[in-house]
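Listing S7. Sequence submitted for prediction.
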Amino acid sequence: MAQHYKTATVFGGTGFLGRQIVRGLARRGVIVKVATRVPERAYFLKPSGDPGQVVPVACDYSNAQSVQRAIEGSDYVVNCIGILFQRGRGRNFKALHTDLPGSIASLCAQSGVKRLVHISALGVEARTSRYAKTKFAGEKAVLENFPQATILRPSVIFGEGDHFFNMFAEMSRYLPFLPLIGGGKTRFQPVFVGDVAEAAMSVLEAP
């Protein structure tokens, strides 16, 4: 009898968190499709698994058929896509934080996906910024289309190559002082990128 290997599609798999999730899935023997606009940018992830185990897949996020092709045949789907700054048409908060997650969730339901993990952000329910508002709306869109989805809300994520602590480290090399966020009264509870990836693994593997 042929063995059925689990298959996962990871959106945003080339990003800071996404690449950790791809590697975690590969270590568990899962076939991983890395859905990305430019497949060549995901080639560095291919050595994370056996030959042919990690497969970059071209995906136009604005095209539902393209997204469906990326999802088709997958047992698991993880959506890590998120931006901190808007960069014109198709790269704005609403398109990537709200519309795309809703579309992914709907297509997961249609394709018989068993588990969907959506990465959101801590505190988005406060909705004090456009970033948070669209992230929160994205959570609602996911649950409306795939009620059994799991949403993770990590705090500031740190680790090798992060864009937060490394930014301040780089600034410290050139500036005589560093700015205090919120007058020095803003509190953060950073979380290690490997721990967030492991949380996603736990959700996918849970009975």
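Caption to Listing S7: primary sequence and predicted structure tokens for the chain studied. The mean pLDDT is 89. The helical segments are 18-27, 64-71, 93-111, 130-145, 165-172, 193-205.
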